[in-house]
Every structure is written in structure tokens, then in C-alpha cells.
Design brief:
two-stranded parallel sheet, about 15% strand, 10 helices, alpha/beta, globular, about 325 residues
């Protein structure tokens, strides 16, 4: 069935092979691909364009969208809604919230919106995008895919130095107290901020599903959070990371991926993960299911993420941070508190 599929950060290590899989296997869908920098000077966007040239008849377009700018996110959502209403795009089949940010080499970065960049790019911006576009899904429903990681679960990721946790004052997630952060703590605290963003994402996903299920007009839309695995060839290992991790990715992780998989079954390539994400997004894999997945296996998320009180609180705060009210979304049973 025809429909529009949106992918954020569509020029990432995972997304480029995901796009290739999408256009190969599901060519009836229209791909709306967002990137932070759509210029010819961006090497990763150039790779994405090169991928699209392999499919001259594909219904695909690239759009510039900086998720560190919430005004741009709201404007983009408005333009997509208008295009669908005008018949320029078919109704939505899926939104793949792929974008992320981390900085493991310096202090917390703050966006012009006043939020810590990791949580704004990975979570808050996607909250704004998803909630504003719920009314543009096709009558048959569709799927929202958000991205998690084993990092959201304390003790499960080898890079963890400080465990992820939702603070009592959730505003500390978006405006962390870094006044006393030492240079020697940048790696650990940077990774914790990344892990906290993943924890917020999973926790929010459960609340979103409850609201969708209780809304008769939107109950056919399902939300899933996927841990796509530890990707041996991801650029993430070489972006805003210490020199040690950079060289480990080149000389150890990539060359010995198959051996490392014996210790970590989630170790795999971006292409493998990208194909799974698309199959999940189009409901070819686990049709109609909701919840948390590790690769394509239904799984349990962390204990903290499954607490309904935590879900209620992160739901309300996420909408507040994203600047979304009940007037901005098709959800009729929505509660912002």
C-alpha cells in the first residue's frame, strides 16, 4: 500500500543502507529523507544522493532539517502536513526517528533552544515531529520507530562510566549541571547524557503507545523502540570520540567484527541493522506489535523505563520541552502534565 516514510538523519551510517533497502524492496512507498546539511559540500549527503541515483524511478526527496532547531522541526512538520493535505505526498506510513548526537570529548553542548544537544536531537525534536504528524497517517495506520541502545540499561554497555537514570528533576536532563564537571569526566558524562537520551526515548515510547491505543482514530498506529545493535562500521565511533576509540573502531572493531560477535551477539554492520529497521517500519516485521526490540526480537527494556509513573512524567515534560500542546496534535486523549 502506498504511503510516505520519513527518515531523519538519512545520511547516517545506518540510514543510507536502510534507504537502499527501502527503495529496493518497498518501491511503492515515498521516501522523505531529512539531513542536517543538504548542501553539495556534505560528504555524507553526497553518499545519500549517490544511493538515490541507483533508483532513477524512486519516489524520494532530500530535505534539510536541523533537529537542534525546534522552530525548523515545527516548520518541517507543518510543511509535510500541508503537502499531504494537498495530495503532493501520500499519507504517512511510517516515521523513522534515526537521528542522534553525542560528544564524548568535551562538556555538554547546548542548542539555541537552551537544551542539551544529545537529548534535543535524539528525543525532543522527534517528539515534536511525531506528535505534530500523527493526524497525517493513512487510515490503515502505520508505525513510528524510535531508536534506543543497550546504553539505556545500567551496566549493559562497556562504555558506561556513570549509569543512566531519570533524575527526580527531569529538567536536569535538558539543562545538566556541568559547573563542576572535570575534563577527565567528559567521556563518562558525555556517554551518560547519550544514554539518558536513550532512556527517555524508551520511556516516552510506552506512554505514546498507551495514548495511541486509547484513541479510536489513531489506534492503528504502533510505536516501537529498537536497539539496532552495536554497529562495527558506524561513523559514531569516529565522531566526537577520543582518539583511542577512533583507532579501536578502525583496527579492532571492524576487522574483528565476526569474532567480537561471539562475545556480543548484537555486533553487526550498519547494512544489517538498516534492513531490519525498514522491515520493522513498514510492518513487514512484527506487524501490529508495539514495544521494545533488540534487533528484530521482542525484548524487555530497563526496569526504570517500564515504570508508569516515570512514563507519565517523561511524557508531560517531553511535550513541554518540544513546545507541543493539545492544539498541535491529533491525539484526542492526550494529557500534558
Amino acid at each position: 500500500m502506498a504511503g510516505t516514510l520519513i527518515i531523519t538523519a538519512a545520511n547516517s551510517s545506518l540510514a543510507i543502507p536502510a534507504v537502499q533497502h527501502l527503495l529496493t524492496k518497498y518501491n511503492d512507498l515515498t521516501a522523505v529523507l531529512t539531513v542536517r546539511n543538504a548542501s553539495e559540500n556534505d560528504v555524507n549527503t553526497t553518499k545519500l544522493r549517490s544511493t538515490l541515483t541507483q533508483f532513477p524511478h524512486a519516489k524520494a526527496s532530500i530535505h534539510q532539517l536541523d533537529l537542534a532547531n525546534l522552530s525548523a522541526v515545527h516548520d518541517f512538520a507543518h510543511s509535510i502536513t500541508a503537502d499531504i493535505s494537498a495530495g503532493k505526498l501520500p499519507p504517512l506510513a511510517a516515521i523513522v526517528c534515526n537521528a542522534y548526537y553525542w560528544n564524548l570529548t568535551g562538556e555538554a553542548q547546548i542548542t539555541d533552544d537552551g537544551y542539551e544537544t544529545s537529548i534535543q536531537v535524539a528525543h525532543i525534536a522527534h517528539v515534536a515531529l511525531v506528535l505534530r504528524l500523527l493526524g497525517s497517517f493513512r487510515p490503515a495506520g502505520g508505525r513510528i520507530v524510535v531508536f534506543s541502545s543497550d546504553a539505556h540499561w545500567p551496566g549493559k554497555n562497556g562504555l558506561e562510566k556513570y549509569p543512566p537514570a531519570l533524575p527526580e528533576d527531569l529538567n536536569l536532563l535538558v539543562k545538566p549541571d556541568v559547573a563542576h564537571e572535570k575534563r577527565s569526566e567528559h567521556f563518562g558524562r558525555g556517554f551518560q547524557r547519550y544514554a539518558n537520551s536513550k532512556l527517555a526515548i524508551v520511556t516516552w515510547m510506552y506512554a505514546l503507545n498507551r495514548f495511541l491505543e486509547n484513541d479510536p482514530n489513531l489506534s492503528k498506529i504502533t510505536a516501537v523502540a529498537i536497539n539496532p545493535g552495536n554497529l562495527s562500521d558506524s561513523r559514531a565511533l569516529r565522531t566526537n570520540t577520543p582518539t583511542m576509540l577512533y583507532y579501536m573502531s578502525i583496527f579492532i572493531i571492524r576487522p574483528f567484527r565476526l569474532l567480537l560477535r561471539l562475545m556480543d551477539p548484537t555486533m553487526r554492520t550498519s547494512a544489517e541493522a538498516g534492513a531490519d529497521v525498514i522491515d520493522l517500519a513498514v510492518n513487514n516485521s512484527h506487524p501490529g506489535e508495539r514495544g521494545y526490540f533488540t534487533l528484530l526480537k521482542k525484548d524487555n527494556s530497563s526496569t526504570e523505563s517500564q515504570g508508569e509513573e516515570a512514563q507519565r512524567k517523561i511524557w508531560g515534560k517531553s511535550a513541554e520541552w518540544a513546545g507541543v500542546t493539545s492544539k498541535d496534535t491529533a491525539l484526542k486523549t492526550i494529557v500534558f502534565e
